[in-house]
Structure formats: C-alpha cells, structure tokens
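Explain this fold:

***
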Amino acid sequence: MNKLPEVTIVDVDRAVADQLLELAKRDASPDEVAPPLGGPGWNLERTAWFFSYHHAAAAGLDGPAAEKSWAVFSGGDVAGSIRL
C-alpha cells in the first residue's frame, strides 16, 4: 500500500505567506486568489492585498478580518490555504 504524504496546517506568518504567494503565482490565476486590483496579472496592488489579507487573517476570528487562515502543507511542501 502506498503511504500518503503527511498533511499539516500551520499559522501564516510572513515566511509562510511568501511561500503561499509563490504557489499562487505558479499554480493559480490571480483572479482566483485576489480581487482585480491594479489591472491584470500579479501586480503590486494584488500582491499587497494578498499580504495584507493573510496578515489580518493571522489575527484570528477576533481580528480585523474576522477570519482565520492557515497554510496547508503536504509532504513538507505548501499546497494551499484554508480559512474559517
């Protein structure tokens, strides 16, 4: 039987947010990840929004975003994020 990779969730700090942004730029359309700010593609406005969103969500349900997000790692590599 094949062993499945270990899946973990971790709080999003700046280093993890950097990894999430790298993943998003590599594997997702900007419109799937961020609002249409500053024109098409990954531009400064979308990137700033991305970091600001994850910073606010890191504060938890009582924070400014009233959400909590985590990064999902599979086999030691960032695979995406989830939020509550």
About this structure: DSSP finds three helices and three strands in the chain.
